[in-house]
Amino acid sequence: MTGTDKRLSVVYACDNNFAPLLAASIKSLEINSAGSLIDVYIIDDGISSSGIQKLKQSVTSSDVALKFYPVKEVVGKIKLPYFNNARLPVTTFFRLFVHTFIPEGTERVLYLDSDMIVLGNIRELWDIDLGDHIVAAVQDPGIKTLGCSWGGGVRNWEELGYHSEDLYLNAGLLLINYKKWVEFDVCNKALDAAVKYQKYIVYGDQYCLNVVLANRWLPLDPEWNHLVDNDQPGAKLLHYIGNKPIYTNYSYSEKYRDIFFDYLKKTAYRDFKMVSGFTRQVRMVKRFFRKIFG
Fold first, then answer.
1. Residues 155, 200 contacting (CB under 8 angstroms)
2. Model-level pTM?
3. Which chain positions lie within coiled-coil regions (predicted)?
4. Is residue 110 within 8 Å of residue 6, measured between CB atoms?
5. CB-based contacts of 172: which residues, under 8 Å, 6+ apart?
6. CA-CA distance, 65 to 52, in Å (whole number)?
7. Strands 108-112 and 169-177
8. Helices 204-213 and 186-196 meet at what angle, rounded to 10?
9. Closest CA to 169 of 195, 197, 134
10. Which residue segments constitute the domains of the chain, with CATH numbers given?
């Protein structure tokens, strides 16, 4: 379906605190997908001018083009939900808005969380046949089904007419069938779910996407979204959930932290110093009040 002459469209959403994570992720994408022409669309949630400059300086291949979109231009006047019980930052909701800046005629879009390191060639992922599915994603290894009692799942699955055994996706990586995403109006349906089912939300828009896309997504091999809280030989993409490797209180595999810093050292953030857990907490509190009081 997609020839080698086609440009790949990859989307990230990122704030200034996660800019070093994003730099390492893009560098891993650039290195391990060499030979592919890639447009990287970055939804910019307040990345500093120096951060933007460092991100641009980190890309050394002419095959990779960075395009920045300020979040106010992407989201417009829509007020995004913010819930005290949501375990993901509101930044994750930005992935719903790919339709506001991706060019018409685009066949598919790959969304990646900024806390990911790409170890495989995404051309392999890109060429997967999506069929009639709206997205392809990896089943969450912890919250495996909508009815999973651990971690939340979709607690109102029965009310929605689903089955407890229906698969639950991890939204950190989404290979999007762009036309079907727009036609199905995923963005507005997910935002409506966020308002209507607020009391059930645990993992932000991931809950909403599972509500909207239940039984409409294609399960991918788990190697394309490996959570670093356990070891998996042969993983093609690492997902640094929880405490990130840029923090001193990172608590997962040292091997995976070393992999992250191997890529970070190849970017303009090569002299980055790890952030203390206390500083991280202060940033989180500031972010909370900014979202509440504007």
1. yes
2. 0.91
3. none
4. no
5. 112, 113, 115, 116, 225, 239
6. 13
7. antiparallel
8. 120
9. 134
10. 8-293 (3.90.550.10)
Question: By the 8 A CB rule, do 170 and 138 touch?
Answer: yes
Task: Identify the DSSP state of 1.
Answer: -
On the 0-12 / 13-18 / 19+ scale of CB atoms within 10 A, 230 is: exposed
Structure tokens at 164: 């407890």
The conformational region for residue 245 under phi > 0 = left, psi -120 to 50 = alpha, else beta, is alpha
Q: Do 152 and 55 meet the contact criterion of CB atoms below 8 Å apart?
A: no
- CA-CA-CA-CA torsion for 59, 67, 97, 19, nearest 10 degrees? 40
pLDDT digits (tens, 9 = 90+) for 154-194: 999 999 999 999 999 999 999 999 999 999 999 999 999 99
Helix (H) or strand (E) holding 123: helix 122-126
The two structure tokens encoding residue 158: 């029965």
- pLDDT digit string, tens, across residues 274-294: 998 665 555 555 554 455 455
Count how many Cα atoms sit within 13 Å of the Cα of residue 141 in the half-sphere of its side chain: 15
